[in-house]
Amino acid sequence: MHRRWKRNSYIVQTVIPFIANTEESITHYDHKWVIIEETQGSCAEKSSVIYKCLNCGEMKIEYGNYNYQVHNEKYLTKKETITPGCETAGTYIIYCKNCNSEIEKHSVSATGHDYQIISETVGTCVEKSQHNIQM
Questions:
Q1: Which residues are CB-neighbours of 130 under 8 A, at least 6 positions away?
Q2: Number of neighbouring beta carbons within 10 Å of residue 117
Q3: Cα dist. 99→12, 76, 85, 95 in Å?
Q4: How far apart are CA 10 and CA 56, in angstroms?
Q5: Confidence band (pLDDT; 50, 70, 90) for 14?
Q6: Scanning 11, 20, 35, 135, which has its CA 20 to 30 A from the CA of 123?
Q7: How much is the pTM?
Q8: Residue 131: its pLDDT value, please?
Q9: Cα dihedral across residues 68, 71, 72, 78: positive or negative
Q10: CB within 8 A of 51, min separation 6: which ones?
Q11: Is 112 helix (H, G, I), strand (E, B) or coil?
């Protein structure tokens, strides 16, 4: 048994340094990242940067923050706050359904009166003509 230990010891002493030397001779490269795509965030999506390593082709994505100054058009909607009247202007607001931010406020002109003649009497040389109107 003692002989066997020496034999194994001999194998370990000759094989292990060979393996160690082989591993040391392998060259390792650090990643060399380049940006291949960059997206600006919005109130609904975080910003992101996609990188690719020039040495090995590995890809990675880094996410940033939400950008509440940018809103995706699919979330924008129009909300009428004051309906315009005959003599008063109205308003409506464009807002983001995702974050409820007010994007734009617009003024709508007054509609003016829309008269409809209900009855009409044609005047003569003695009487004036009459118009009955409804607003």
A1: 119, 120, 121, 123
A2: 9
A3: 67, 10, 31, 9
A4: 39
A5: very low
A6: 135
A7: 0.43
A8: 61
A9: positive
A10: 33, 34, 35, 36, 59, 60, 61, 62
A11: coil
